[in-house]
Design a protein that fits this description.
The complex is a heterodimer of chains A (296) and B (307). Chain A is mainly alpha-helical and 296 residues long. Chain A is 72% helix and 0% strand. Chain B is an alpha/beta fold. Chain B contains 11 helices and 13 strands. Classes of the chains: A mainly alpha (296), B alpha/beta (307). At the A-B interface, helix 3 and helix 7 of A face helix 2 and helix 3 of B.
């Protein structure tokens, strides 16, 4: 009988007759959230000391993409007819910026849920330390996702500020792009964390993940050019890519339903549902695998 | 149900087809140091993990601090301290941060964990390394930090899984001294070990486990009295000389033939040595010592070649 993570237990406590309610129940009544926050606090303590090591991937790398594609490549194609068709008439940088947000969130999600998660199980084993305390394995998994959400929102906001300096932000809609990017990231994070929790040996598994999943996803999710520029038979591949859904959603928030964008309110809803389903499915699998692995 | 901190009846744990723990009864009383002694794979760690509420039992009943781990796992874990077999410190955090972060897992207030961390660094003799990262610390220091960390919530029950494995003798003695100090402060401890000397040093009472069951139970002195003789004569012979095992079996109460030496169990080792000499037995070396848990273990697990 596996121990379940405590759902917020207010109903259960309410259900107890007041006269019989033993005071010791209050300890359990605290529910799932405080434990998740303590896991987040651990990640924050680590980050405060080691953020420089991650700044390259979370800040510098997106910045390089911005310079190379947004400014370099953008200058080349801006003003050409086909580019204007594809971007719905807005400058390439403006069109690209929300997609870069989504791409950056997904890349961070994949990296943060690969080696660091496996390390928690296997090398530094900090997950074992956490779950020897009142923290449950499910709270460790949720804490990982919660921390990612905090971190991705923070680094995304910095990214938005940098893009704004280069003139890539035209509307406050970019705030919704950021939300879409974070949602995409956390959904991918859940799936990758579940994947990592199921492996013992990182060798091939992570190579396949990075080279055969992440790179194609980055290139063919409509970040740098609309997916409809691809041959028809490739396009369905984009539909299963969470990054494509995230990119369409993030871009719709700033560009709107233009001629180059397939986004309508219904399409946006579809993207949100896809990402939420991915988050729920990945999250449920991660919870289960964390529990099986940490409390066998 | 008594006032025992841990009470197990017919406790079992299986992993698929493999039965790691095959029905054991355990009672640990408040204030005592209780040991699980046994070789690797005896089921000690599986038992410890069930008591630590990090591994649901497959059968039997288990009460820890009067609660059922299947129901109240987090509440029990809030009141126990755990020293795992493998260190799982945060290598990239400092000594102080490790203690503080761990205290926060228990929901202790920040001011309290700051205070507690200072106190525990004193206890672990790591105060001068307070703000140094953990990674470059020696094995003994890391182990002391792990033990200090397990005390952050002032546990009523401390679980130590192979606490000194891999440490040099000096580091082991220092750790034993710290654990003894905790015992005097009234902290109940459960220790697993495959070191007989450690069990003798630390434990008031212990069980010998082998193959997932309990082979014997008692205090170290009781077990030695029950399963061994007062003294042991250890003999070594040159490789090309056949030891007169038959003669020895007649003169000693029991003989164990090990690959490198013979153990002769007897009440009076020197007397036996004299008897053997009179019968013309000339070993390369002879040593008389008192019986230890090692001898109890050899007897109980049937790893002797001649009985």
């Amino acid at each position: 009988m596996a121990e379940r993570i405590d759902l917020p237990s207010t109903p259960r406590v309410d259900a107890l007759p007041a006269a019989e309610g033993p005071p010791t129940r209050t300890e359990r009544a605290e529910g799932v959230v405080p434990g998740v926050l303590r896991v987040v606090e651990h990640h924050w303590t680590w980050y405060r000391r080691n953020w420089r090591a991650t700044a390259v991937s979370s800040i510098l790398q997106p910045l390089l993409f911005l310079l190379a594609f947004g400014l370099g490549f953008g200058a080349l194609i801006d003003g050409t007819g086909r580019a204007a068709d594809a971007t719905g008439g807005v400058p390439y940088l403006v069109w690209l910026a929300p997609a870069l947000l989504a791409m950056s969130a997904v890349q961070t999600a994949v990296f943060d849920s690969a080696y660091p998660v496996l390390s928690g199980f296997k090398w530094q084993r900090v997950y074992w330390a956490m779950t020897a305390t009142p923290i449950s394995p499910g709270q460790v998994a949720l804490g990982h996702l919660a921390w990612f959400t905090v971190k991705a929102t923070g680094s995304g906001a910095i990214y938005v500020a940098v893009i704004a300096v280069f003139g890539g932000v035209r509307t406050v809609g970019i705030a919704f792009s950021l939300l879409a990017a974070v949602l995409t990231g956390v959904a991918v994070s859940a799936v990758v964390a579940a994947f990592t929790a199921g492996i013992d040996d990182e060798g091939t598994a992570f190579t396949v993940l990075f080279r055969l999943v992440l790179i194609p996803m980055t290139l063919f999710s409509g970040t740098f050019f609309p997916v409809d520029q691809l041959p028809g038979w490739v396009q369905p591949v984009a539909w299963i890519s969470p990054l494509w859904h995230g990119t369409e959603l993030a871009r719709a928030a700033v560009v709107g339903a233009g001629p180059g964008s397939a986004s309508t309110a219904l399409a946006a809803l579809g993207h949100v549902v896809f990402l939420l389903v991915l988050l729920a499915g990945g999250g449920a699998l991660a919870l289960r695998r964390f529990r099986r692995r940490l409390h066998p | 149900m008594g006032d025992g901190l841990v009470q197990a009846r017919d406790l079992r744990k299986s992993f698929g087809e493999f039965e790691a723990v095959r029905g054991i009864d355990v009672d640990v009383a408040r204030g005592e140091v209780f040991g699980f002694l046994g070789p690797n794979g005896a089921g000690k760690s599986s038992t410890m993990r069930m008591i630590a509420c990090v591994s649901p039992r497959s059968g039997g009943t288990l009460q820890v601090l009067g609660m059922d781990p299947d129901v109240d796992g987090p509440r029990i874990r809030a009141r126990i301290g755990v020293v795992p077999q493998l260190d799982n410190l945060d290598q990239e955090l400092t000594v102080r941060e490790n203690l503080q972060v761990y205290g926060r897992y228990f929901g202790l207030p920040r001011a309290r964990v700051r205070e507690k961390a200072v106190e525990l660094m004193q206890f672990a003799q790591l105060a001068d390394r307070a703000d140094a990262p953990v990674e470059p610390l020696s094995g003994g220091m890391k182990r002391r930090l792990t033990i200090a960390r397990s005390l952050v919530n002032d546990p009523e029950l401390l679980l130590l899984d192979e606490p000194t494995t891999g440490l040099d003798p000096q580091a082991r003695h220092l750790l034993w001294e710290r654990l003894y100090r905790l015992k005097r402060e009234g902290v109940t401890q459960i220790v697993t070990t495959h070191y007989m000397d450690e069990a003798e040093q630390l434990c008031d009472r212990l069980v010998v486990m082998d193959g997932g069951v309990i082979a014997a139970e008692g205090s170290p002195a009781e077990l030695i009295a029950r399963y061994s003789t007062r003294e042991v004569l250890e003999l070594r012979f040159p490789p090309d000389v056949a030891a007169p095992v038959e003669l020895m079996t007649r003169l000693a109460e029991r003989v164990e033939v090990l690959p490198d030496r013979l153990l002769l169990y007897t009440a009076d080792g020197e007397h036996l040595q004299g008897e053997l000499a009179r019968n013309g037995v000339r070993p390369q070396s002879a040593l008389v010592r008192r019986s230890s848990l090692e001898d109890v273990f050899l007897r109980l697990t049937g790893r002797s070649l001649v009985d």
